[in-house]
Specification:
- Helix content is 40%, strand content 31%.
- By secondary structure, the chain is α+β, with helices and mostly antiparallel strands.
């Protein structure tokens, strides 16, 4: 299992979301994690942990504020969409 983390602090971040994204292969999931883990979260209100388990990329996001959790997840899906479009186009 591979993982990338940006500063986890459990007790200060009561709002959490876990996202599992299935890819065709483990390599595709690893490539997605490598690309999406480059951008760290700005500030200290959000923690994002990416990991690969088989052909599934697991994303755990936690935050001290509900609004910041929504913003972080929305931003993540935007970046994922760009990654998937590029991957489909250039493979």
């Amino acid at each position: 299992m591979s993982s990338v983390s940006s500063k986890p602090t459990e007790k200060d971040e009561p709002y959490k979301c876990s996202i599992d994204i299935q890819f065709l292969t483990r390599l595709h999931a690893q490539n997605a994690m490598d690309v999406l883990s480059v951008d760290k979260e700005i500030g200290d209100r959000v923690t994002k942990i990416l990991a690969v388990k088989g052909n599934i990329m697991v994303v755990n996001v936690s935050s001290s504020e509900a609004k910041m959790l929504r913003v972080a997840i929305s931003s993540f899906y935007d970046m994922l969409s760009v990654f998937l479009k590029c991957y489909q186009e250039f493979g």
